Amino acid sequence: MTTNQLIQQIKKKKSFLCIGLDVDLNKIPQHLLKEDDPIFSFNKAVIDATHHLCVAYKPNTAFYEAYGLKGWKSLEKTIRYLNEKHPEIFTIADAKRGDIGNTSTMYAKVFLEDLAFDSVTVAPYMGKDSVEPFLAFKDKHTILLALTSNQGAFDFQTKTVDGKALYKQVLETSKTYTNSENLMYVVGATKAEYLADIRQIIPDSFLLVPGVGAQGGSLKEVCKYGMNAQVGLLINSSRGIIYASNETDFAEAAALKASELQKQMAVELSHHFIN
Amino acid sequence: MTTNQLIQQIKKKKSFLCIGLDVDLNKIPQHLLKEDDPIFSFNKAVIDATHHLCVAYKPNTAFYEAYGLKGWKSLEKTIRYLNEKHPEIFTIADAKRGDIGNTSTMYAKVFLEDLAFDSVTVAPYMGKDSVEPFLAFKDKHTILLALTSNQGAFDFQTKTVDGKALYKQVLETSKTYTNSENLMYVVGATKAEYLADIRQIIPDSFLLVPGVGAQGGSLKEVCKYGMNAQVGLLINSSRGIIYASNETDFAEAAALKASELQKQMAVELSHHFIN
Prior knowledge:
The structure is a homodimer.
Chain A: H1 3-13, E1 17-20, H2 38-50, E2 56-58, H3 61-65, H4 68-85, E3 90-97, H5 101-114, E4 119-122, H6 128-135, E5 141-147, H7 153-156, E6 160-161, E7 164-165, H8 166-174, E8 183-187, H9 195-201, E9 207-209, H10 219-226, E10 233-237, H11 239-242, H12 250-274
Parallel strand pairs in A: 1-2, 1-10, 2-3, 3-4, 4-5, 5-8, 8-9, 9-10
Antiparallel strand pairs in A: 6-7
Helix pairs in contact in A: 2-4, 2-12, 5-6, 10-12
């Protein structure tokens, strides 16, 4: 999917919501456990109920790997379902991979070609030749970890490197990578005030923002500091939506929570694009 | 496996060789492609021929994920075979994972509990709460990326952070993590001269050293600067050993290459522990 197609979807749906499909068998409605593939059944129901309210889905691969072969099968079925039924939706493999050149190419093929996700999250620690293999895929996107939403982000990411915070070095250096136009960035909502600085370095890039809701970030603040002329934001919510209920009404409850966020996003969009 | 058990194996075998099981179906002998599970057949033959010459095996998960469900099955069979037939061998899941707390716990369970590897490689970018979940497993080891062997290592790892290279900050900060005694570190052999500095910070830790051979690093140099009183080194070789031949004699050829390295290691051990 091209960035323009994503922007069109955002404008059409008045939503820049990404729903995190982080499925934990201990948290889903227990009646689903009788199904052949409870994870896929859960995802399918959530997708069917929410696809008109969001523009992206993001399964975190850890939740699927946790169930071994069965989990990988559920992941395959989920992305195939999305690509067949909702090709207009932007898909993110939240895999946080990164390895030396040839090995990164293997990861890139798995997620961007074989599973046919639109994008994959990548860790920047190993530098250029670990990231560029992901950038080589046309109309696919590499979402680089810049400033994450967890406490550990302060261990290294915010430390000063040659006069500038490490996450800023990551942003600036990554702009020099081949095919850098395929880059997006993870920036945690719990650090919304950093977004103004970040927009100085990457005014045009899309940001994937986790941490709104469960982790305490504010949608309003994120939009204030992070929105650009092309919106430029995907706001992720996982637990707050998919575990809104663990009864038989879980999909409707998820849709209700997604709808609340979508309405807030519509308000933000009208503020930013009328003024 | 405890660190002491690993050291005992090194002394017994006069070897600190780790063999990287990075299996690419395009590079293995073509007669194996007729087998049910060519990757496992290849690994089993290599393991049977080399287990007395090395103390560790390290499958890089990218090579298995690349083949989807089949690949994961081959990885499962390989680690089960190792744990059943050669429980004295140290096993490394080279997965380079790392995510926020709960999600890192899921990855840790997959590799250290379900697949029962002795250790897993982890990327440090997300800091303390992304690493500590891996450290919580008793007699298991977390091998943190410090200074990698690729060119991209110079993008961020060697940059100066608060007066010190980032990889040194990673070493120092990680020493403060809960259960830090379960840490080992990846340090590339292509940067052997850095090892003296590294030993100032972490005199006692084991280092996993890729990049000897194919990537140009020297065993002698690595031992000169990196060996400590408990040896403290695992030197990895992948392609140089497992692809020594792609004919029917591939396992014997792998054993010959492994044996050459083991002999050089025996010489290094005798130098360092007699003087």
